[in-house]
Specification:
seven-stranded parallel sheet
């Protein structure tokens, strides 16, 4: 048996979806896993849990500034120096309050920065070394919210729409190379980020189901993953609704 472990990096490793993806990756084989989060203590707690689940894995926890481009560049350079990476999952973000963003430009700025600019900077930082190595999978979590702007969450949706276009551009740039770019579009998922939606009685997918869809899709090298898969059809319908019909909908 080969002693070479698959090398995986998760940016935003403290998100519930990212944590469950990590559990799946360490479940069946030892991996070399680097977890990157904004809160070192929380990231280390997740790393400790994964070490118990997979003693054969090498698991590191790292703290990072998610908005400073210089810090992002230095972090990624340090991670990739000396070894190529098999999988990078960029998973961070948060669901802002749309009403707050409408009346508070600082909140709007923070939501757009963390949910769009930051993931794009991480993706760009990893894309260069992966292209040079001509291997690996760069997976970026967007959202079904990015498929069409809606009054209930257009700040978040616009940010995720930006992520989708950025991922598409990277896919075009890296087409024909050994690097795969995967755009992930989860629907509403039962995580701490959507607790308010759960309290409102809205249907949410289980985080384990969504994580399994993501890991399976990455393994298959799918260019786009809707998680769960039903959202591909739902969003196709929403994208193609005539404007006069869409504008009468309270969504």
């Amino acid at each position: 048996m080969s002693s070479i472990k698959k090398r995986i990096v998760i940016i935003g490793a403290t998100s519930s979806i990212a944590e469950h993806c990590a559990r799946l990756w360490v479940k069946d084989a030892g991996v070399d896993l680097t977890l990157v989060g904004r809160d070192q203590d929380k990231t280390e707690r997740i790393a400790a849990d994964l070490r118990v689940r997979s003693p054969q894995s090498i698991i590191r926890a790292r703290e990072a500034d998610f908005v400073d481009p210089v810090a992002i560049h230095h972090l990624v350079t340090d991670i990739v120096t000396g070894e190529s990476t098999d999988i990078v999952l960029i998973a961070h973000g948060f669901l802002p309050d749309q009403a707050v963003c409408q009346r508070d430009l600082s909140a709007c700025h923070d939501a757009l920065t963390v949910n769009s600019i930051s993931p794009a900077l991480f993706a760009e930082a990893f894309a260069g070394p992966m292209q040079k190595a001509n291997r690996g999978t760069l997976a970026i979590i967007g959202s079904v919210a990015g498929d069409r702007g809606r009054k209930s969450n257009y700040v978040y949706g616009a940010a995720k729409g930006f992520v989708a276009r950025y991922a598409q551009g990277l896919q075009h740039r890296l087409a024909g190379s050994g690097v795969k770019v995967v755009l992930i579009k989860p629907g509403p998922t039962d995580t701490p980020m959507t607790e308010h939606l759960k309290q409102q009685g809205k249907p949410l997918a289980s985080v384990t189901e969504v994580a399994q869809s993501i890991v399976d899709g990455i393994n298959q090298g799918k260019p786009v993953i809707y998680a769960p898969a039903k959202w591909a059809l739902i969003m196709m319908i929403i994208r193609h609704l005539p404007r006069f019909v869409f504008n009468r909908m309270d969504i």
